[in-house]
Amino acid sequence: MTKLVPIQSIYCSKEDETRLCSFDIEVISAPTTPLIHPMSRLWLINEGEGTLLLNGKKYPLVKGTLVSVLPWQITDIVEVKSPLQFFVMAYYFDNINEIIKTFYNPDSVSLSVSQSMSRSPVVTFDTREHVKMQQLFLQIKDELRTLSRLDSSDAETASESLGLCKLYITNKLIEIIVSFIRTCHTLPTQDASTETSEIFQYLYTHLNEKITLSMLSQQFYMSESAISSYIKRTTGLSFFDLLNEMRVGKTINYLLYTDFTLEELAEILGFVDSAHISKVFLARIGMKANDFRKTYQSIGDKCRIKDRQVFYTIVSYIYRNYAEDLQPKNVSEHFHISPKELNRILLFQVEMNFSDYLNYIRINRACELLLTTDKSILTIALEVGYNTEKTLTRNFLRFRSMTPGKFRRSVELQEDAL
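Below the sequence we write its predicted structure tokens.
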């Protein structure tokens, strides 16, 4: 019988659910077993040497290595040549990502935070940069201790100090992430992978869509039964139970750091309605969602909440109407914004501009039709929103690095999970 992969906590800190991040030091002297991380993490290796298996790919771990583990990725240290000692920082990725884009990007520059950290999840600093990174981690550690002391003191006198502590921690955490991404940009780009373990991260990043096994089958070129079997074998959870586990984790983040209503959260996170989100949350956490918010919420409307609701509406509109003759001008007019603002919103929300996002959706749909129908390439081009076969081919080469014809001949749905 296949051994289940344990799933870590959906909180940053077991002691305080409201913490934006937590700090710990780990020492590993022997290979580990696989572990699923609902919460994002940063590992800074300070001593030792080993090999990490992250989402099915091997990476060397040495002194100075910084590892980015995004939500719902799987890690496994498969080799330890000498004992590894490293700092561990767990943090709410979605919240930090939005703070970076909203408050640290005044010129609305295209920032692909998640894509950069996913494309190159492991970087190694030289001695000088490693020492700088150690200092940043230790500064956060010290501030978290200060925050714990302030939490237990008089609320009125500690209020301003608490705010400054949280601001300091946020700034330092963002400094670490920005340094990581800048280093990523100096590394060679890796080819896109369709490792089975990436199913979890795909689910997590598409929770606002109505996800089905059929959708996953088309995305990963595996049969629905193979995907369902892989999820059950790996986590012990059914497909729908896994979705609910992920959605509850994100719900906690939104309840802590936003003022979205339950109706809005249901739409954003893919629940049927507010009653559904309440039922799932109560079953998993043991208290009602609104009671959880009243007890633990610490930040309120930190990230332009009402603007973000519009963001989700725009992304959903393009996703549902990809086959229409969508142009930046008519979509902008539909939402009463400028084309420039439309692109800014899409860069913020999906880390692609209008053209890239629309073509990305169309090519995914074209892949599905190529594999599941015998329609001609021209017919498929017209069905997904292109006027000519040539336009489909040009975009197909860009996103899949092959022509539609070659894709149809060489790719088949996988019947057995890896």
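The radius of gyration is 22 Å.
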